[in-house]
Design goal:
The chain has 488 residues and is an alpha+beta fold. The protein folds into two domains: 244 residues, no CATH class; 126 residues, no CATH class. Strands 2, 5, 6, 7, 9, 10, 11, 12 and 15 form a nine-stranded mixed β-sheet that branches. The chain has a six-stranded antiparallel β-sheet with strand order 18-20-19-22-17-21, sandwiched between helices. Strand 5 and strand 6 form a beta hairpin. The longest helix is centred in the N-terminal third of the chain and has 18 residues. The relative contact order is 0.18.
Length: 488
């Protein structure tokens, strides 16, 4: 079977949708962090808050109350039934009224307010684009494992259960002004405070004229994927998969109250190749100024869009944190000894002492650690470093600490690949990384966060930083509003 022709949006498009929301007394108790930030212990904590927590949908497992599917020997759901469990749970909650779809399509203003931050944005259906269109910019590489996992979940449940996180330069545009007006003058649909002390509020924009204003403002803008690269790649693979399974045959237009101004899509006859590869290929072309769009078509399927939170980064600058690595089975002393062949290495008796020196050290610098001590590595041999870094990447890309780690330290210093089997990921928490290193007889690699301007410049140049290089925040909470294909 051939590759289907994919629609091409005329720009950055955010379509309203009928959100599916929990009908519970305290909405905070049924929400969760994004799926890739949840540990096994976190699952137990979330289910203790509420038996219908959204974690049962995004990370289904046998120990969830009421699980009726086969389990593997370790007590977890067998892989072939894990996603069926999520589908059945979703359908059961919809029938029981635990989850209820909103009456009308809407764009949702979403506010997160913590002790030291405030972020507001819009949740809606973002029209999917190829990276080459330079509309939605990926900045990070993806791995096939997480894409396969999320694809199985989305295709089985026929739903987007949590939004990706997009940033754009709003430049005090009409979208940002409308978001501010809604958040400060209108009554929210939802107001909930989660266990971390953050207040989450949600409003619905249903007025077609306001939705048209938003899409007219967004049309010529670009968005950076801040969080959710694997899910966005999954959206695109799912789009191809569903279009192969359900070729569009009905040329009738979509209902006018669900199609905003600027949302017309056109057929792209140049799409080809393997779906997973296409979803993750780097972008090398920019949007041509004044180029004429192909003739539009009214065929708009639900899988031509993906659930997303869009935030104006000029109004609400993001918080960019580091993601640390742990190398199981590589003892700290051995890692430091091997690093001495190409780096200056300083030993510290405690992790705290190492961190104090690390924070003031010039780049590139890394802290190797476990619970028993730390080694600061700085001043790499310039000849060895230059030889290791790829010539086909920009100088800015080659200067990133995650690039140096993936291209020089891991393969050349320690003789290993930067993959999911050899390298474990720990978001933000330095102490957790050190504890994991100790428990696995390994080494934690503590990194400094990348600069936002470096990430934006790399993405704008059509490059992608190595996997798990950035952690933008605050991330949207999962479970406040869901999207199902059947309802949309």
């Amino acid at each position: 079977m051939g590759t289907p022709e994919l629609p091409v949006p005329g720009g950055l498009v955010l379509r309203p949708f009928r959100g599916v929301r929990f009908a519970v007394e305290d909405p905070a108790k049924v929400t969760s962090p994004p799926y890739d930030l949840i540990s096994d212990a976190d699952v137990d904590t979330l289910l203790h808050l509420h038996p219908n927590n959204v974690v049962r949908l995004i990370l289904p497992r046998a120990s969830h109350p009421g699980s009726a599917h086969a389990v593997a020997a370790d007590g977890e759901l067998a892989p072939e039934t894990r996603y069926a469990e999520a589908r059945d749970t979703l359908q059961s909650w919809l029938r029981a009224g635990i989850l209820v779809p909103d009456d009308r399509p809407a764009l949702y203003v979403y506010e997160q307010h913590g002790r030291h931050f405030l972020q507001r944005g819009l949740i809606g259906d973002v029209a999917l684009t190829d990276p080459g269109q330079h509309v939605i910019l990926p900045h990070e590489d993806v791995m096939p494992g997480p894409i396969a996992d999320r694809l199985a979940l989305m295709s089985t449940t026929q739903a987007n259960l949590e939004p990706i996180f997009l940033l754009y330069d709003g430049s005090d545009g009409s979208t940002t002004r409308l978001v501010e007006e809604v958040a400060t003058r209108r009554r929210p649909l939802v107001s909930a405070e989660t266990e971390d002390g953050v207040t989450h509020r949600l409003w619905a924009i249903i007025d077609p004229s306001e939705i048209a204003v938003i899409n007219a403002d967004l049309r010529d803008r670009q968005a950076l994927i801040a969080d959710g690269h694997h899910r966005y790649a999954t959206y695109r693979v799912l789009q191809r998969q569903e279009r192969l399974a359900h070729p569009p045959t009905d040329p009738s237009p979509a209902p006018s109250d669900t199609t905003p101004a600027g949302a017309a899509l056109s057929s792209d006859a140049t799409q080809s190749g393997d779906a997973a590869a296409a979803a993750s290929e780097p972008a090398h072309t920019s949007r041509a100024a004044g180029s004429q769009a192909p003739p539009p078509t009214t065929l708009i399927a639900p899988w031509d869009f993906g659930l997303a939170l869009l935030v104006d980064s000029t109004a609400y600058p993001p918080d960019l944190k580091a993601i640390h690595r742990v190398i199981p089975g590589l003892p700290l002393a051995k890692a430091a000894a091997q690093a001495r062949q190409s780096w200056r290495v300083q030993e510290f008796g405690t992790l705290a002492e190492g961190l104090a020196a690390f924070e003031t050290s010039p780049d590139p610098a890394f802290l190797l650690a476990d619970e028993g001590g730390a080694y600061l590595i700085t001043d790499p041999d310039p000849v060895q470093l230059a030889r290791a870094m790829p010539a086909d990447h920009s100088d800015r890309w080659n200067s990133l600490n995650t690039s140096i780690l993936s291209e020089f330290i891991l393969p050349k210093v320690w003789g290993m690949r930067d993959d999911e089997q050899a390298v474990r990921i720990v978001h933000h928490d330095i102490q957790a990384a050190a504890e994991l290193a100790t428990s696995t007889g390994g080494t934690a690699v503590i990194l400094k966060p990348l600069a936002t301007e470096d990430v934006l410049a790399v993405a704008a140049g059509g490059e992608r930083v190595p996997r798990k290089s950035t952690s933008f925040g605050p991330k949207p909470r999962t479970g406040l509003v869901l999207r199902t294909f059947a309802i949309n």
